């Protein structure tokens, strides 16, 4: 954020009027703060190549389900106990999947560890787009770069480039991208080659944000150093106030002042509306809490997103970046996938807890989640109780502005037919056929966030509509 924009925002923040009081923690005084929440995108990257054909499966009893089980049974039957427990696909369905139906009445299963995702689908808040193609090169680094940049033609190793989140922030013009991950991904980076992070705020620890004033333990070395540095820079600014405007160190000193003022303003906001995080969010990353996620880092990301919305106007946040790694399931896919998916989509877990915490703020009606991953996995199990790198996959969009349902053929008949008697499920290396390009979907997401921005973020997609599965109307994926 530019310093002049920050100062204007800070002044505005001090004059906010009350839209309604809300209590964000037990026994805490109600805080009167008005924030005009605008439509906001949260992009959740799943590095490693998530096999969403494990999350979403066909109902038993069909020819497709028979082929699915024949090709993938090893994923479920990786030890003697599971071989006894899951003798048939009906056993797997009964024990592991929650039946649900699309608008056409077709039944499919959502893994029981994703009970919150099923609930949201049944409420009409989830769109599942089938047969999506992003990257087809099967390499993690290049595929992640393609997905984060939103450019299927992007060259390998080119990390100094813009991402589709950064381009969206530029298209909105007054927006920033807030990253709550440990590192800032290409997704966030902007179009200015001299400063890719100009519209990025890194908020990976929102309760330790900004520059320290040294107000902690007065006897600690870190507090003493922070107080000394604060005094040094204040004195230095007075000392050099008469230096020529072109003096090169002015910018450095102004940068330190802006960072300190911005951090102080944001910390004051947190103190006024939520001195402590809601216990439910704190529990997600606190060891021994009873509801700690398998990935405590993702739990902290959820808490950071909540805090970022408390300062959404200060951050000018319209885009946010989250990440849950660990989806490279070449072996023992079942145990690894189930551990990951419960953190993301489990009832009372990561995103469910975040959603409940955000509800009193009125944010959720203005919020859309997109879930992206490197690539899909192959249709057939690989012999190590997992699946290898593939291409086609599903894409999941989640939010109350979604026109929920399944877009595309979830379990294509073409995968179980073949001229020589061999189907795609019989062939090692065979993939879900990619029929809809991921940028066709994400361009519609951008247009929902800010009408007309899809063309600026994904100009190629908006000129060529050939990569959309026949019969799929992506223009209906959001409610009017």
**Helix/strand structural class:** alpha/beta
In total, the number of strands is 12
Which range best describes the helical content: under 10%, 10-25%, 25-40%, 40-55%, 55-70% or over 70%? Answer: 25-40%
Q: Can you summarize the main beta sheet?
A: 9 strands, mixed
Large-scale geometry: globular
Q: Low-confidence stretches at least 5 residues in length (pLDDT < 50)?
A: 1-31
Strand content: 5-15%
Q: Termini, distance in Å? A: 32 Å
Number of helices: 17
Helix and strand element order: HEHEHHHEEHEHHEEHHHHHEHHEEEEHH
Gyration radius (Cα, Å) is 24 Å
- Mean pLDDT score: 91
Organism: Candidatus Thiodiazotropha taylori
Protein name: DUF1501 domain-containing protein
Describe the overall structure.
The structure is a single chain. This protein is of the alpha/beta class and 480 residues long. It has a domain at 46-198 and 317-476. It is 37% helix and 13% strand. It has helices at 3-13, 52-55, 63-76, 80-85, 89-96, 115-122, 140-149, 164-172, 221-239, 249-273, 279-283, 296-310, 312-315, 333-345, 350-358, 438-449, 453-457, and strands at residues 40-46, 56-58, 97-101, 107-111, 126-133, 176-179, 200-202, 317-323, 367-373, 393-399, 405-407, 436-437. The two termini are 32 Å apart.
SSE layout:
Blueprint: H1 3-13, E1 40-46, H2 52-55, E2 56-58, H3 63-76, H4 80-85, H5 89-96, E3 97-101, E4 107-111, H6 115-122, E5 126-133, H7 140-149, H8 164-172, E6 176-179, E7 200-202, H9 221-239, H10 249-273, H11 279-283, H12 296-310, H13 312-315, E8 317-323, H14 333-345, H15 350-358, E9 367-373, E10 393-399, E11 405-407, E12 436-437, H16 438-449, H17 453-457
Parallel strand pairs: 1-8, 1-9, 5-11, 5-12, 6-7, 6-8
Antiparallel strand pairs: 2-4, 3-4, 5-10, 9-10
